[in-house]
Amino acid sequence: MAEKGSEWVVMATGRSPTNIAVIKYWGKRDEDLILPINDSISLTLDPLHLSATTAAAVSPAFSRDRMWLNGKEIPLSSERYQKCLREIRKRANEVSDEKKGIKIKKEDWENLHVHISSYNNFPTAAGLASSAAGFACLVFTLAKLMNVKEDLGQISSIARQGSGSACRSLFGGFVKWTMGNNADGSDSLAIQLADEAHWTDLVVIIAVVSSKQKETSSTSGMRETVQTSALIKHRAETVVPARVLKMEEAIANRDFTSFAKLACADSNQFHAVCLDTSPPIFYMNDTSHRIINLVEKWNHSEGTPQVAYTFDAGPNAVLISPNRKTAALLMQRLLYQFPPNQETDLTSFVVGDKSILQDAGVTSMKDIENLEPPPEIKDKVPHQRFTGDVSYFICTRVGSGPRVITDETLALLDPVTGLPK
Ligand code: DP6
Question: What does the UniProt function comment say about this protein (predicted)?
Fold first, then answer.
């Protein structure tokens, strides 16, 4: 066991981004190992606006593994958490802190317990991919704490066993999850296609759509699709492999037209296989459909894609513009069609990179009221405004992968007791 008495706590803190798939993962060939039936591709979103921060601590004084999520203790008993902990522990190495006189030997890790505290800088209930950032951060931070030497690709295949989409959050920029062939899942991991500096013009606007309906979880939704949909086989075997190649090419060439066509088509096909599931699964709602119409009408009137849309297992829209100018025009259209309720204030209605609002010429609620209908719908009366149907917008961009946080004041666990601060 470590050299000192039982009073010490060793801690590591990490921050991991969330990601949005532009070629979707939907369907597993192995439920236990979380092995997918097709490759997928995602954009990592800027951790400044959407990320999980996790602190992990170890001490001989801890009697069991414990975890707190957004300040509330949660059970670690689920197989997904257990697998991540087990796989990381297996790869742990010696850790020594000479200044504090602490030395943890490789074999000590099997008997030491950890405390983990994690929080998301965006509302978990908003239906944004919180499990992707959460599991990526858990595995990344534990790997740092335990001095795991494996590369990020291998670490991503551990995060995959927490939640499939989490493996893509181990890298910044543009990421592919290769489905792999091995039965043990060792080659089902994330690889970076290009880092966040590759295509910096892209602007991402997320419309958080109000939804009262309880959604089917991704895990059970995709299980039902694999069991009952006739279309999913065609998607996984024929459509996605061709799309993945084209999407890689579009990203490499920063070809927004191809990127947007592929992303929209793939989102629509994912929702089509959900509808082809028995009983059918509806993730999008009327507001989601209105957002698709808004974008499609605009894209059609310009003759070339101005914006790409994609929807995960929920009604929120993720809209990707090729540059700030188009993002400002998109913002005007969104605010025209989905103005906030009277009592909402603008600073909480558009969050993240608010400078897009200035570009859109909107600095007050009055400006939103006074917006003109966009030209592509101008002559098509009557056109309606759907007040309050979007809860808020998050403006962000493609961002970096997980990072260690060294600023101890930001740590979520008390360095002496190892309990949440
Ligand atoms: C629609 O990764 O949440 O967001 O592996 O069962 O945890 P599990 O599912 P999860 O599914 C994500 C599905 C998706 C598409 C995607 O992110 O590729």
Answer: Performs the first committed step in the biosynthesis of isoprene-containing compounds such as sterols and terpenoids.
Ligand 1 neighbourhood includes 163 CB (under 6 angstroms): yes
Side-chain half-sphere exposure of 232, counting CA atoms within 13 A: 25
> Encoding tokens for residue 377?
């719908």
Using H for helix, E for strand and C for coil, what is the string for 267-288?
Answer: HHHHHHHHHCCCCCCCCCCHHH
Neighbours of 376 (CB within 10 A): 16
Kindly report whether the peptide bond that precedes residue 75 is cis, defined as omega within 30 degrees of 0: no
Residue 354 binned pLDDT confidence (cut-offs 50, 70, 90): very high
Tokens coding 96: 């020594």
- Residue 15 backbone zone (phi > 0: left; psi -120 to 50: alpha; other: beta): beta
218 lines ligand 1 (CB under 6 A): yes
Locate 10 and state its tokens: 């060793």
Ligand 1 center to residue 48 CA distance, Å?
Answer: 22
Sign of CA dihedral 122, 128, 131, 135: negative
Rounded CA separation 182/188 (Å): 8
Q: Locate 2 and state its tokens.
A: 């470590």
Are 244 and 174 a contacting pair, CB within 8 Å? no
Q: Cα dihedral sign for 299, 302, 307, 308?
A: positive
pLDDT in tens, 358-398: 999 999 999 999 999 999 987 766 678 999 999 999 999 99
- Determine how many CB atoms are found less than 10 A away from the CB of residue 222: 28
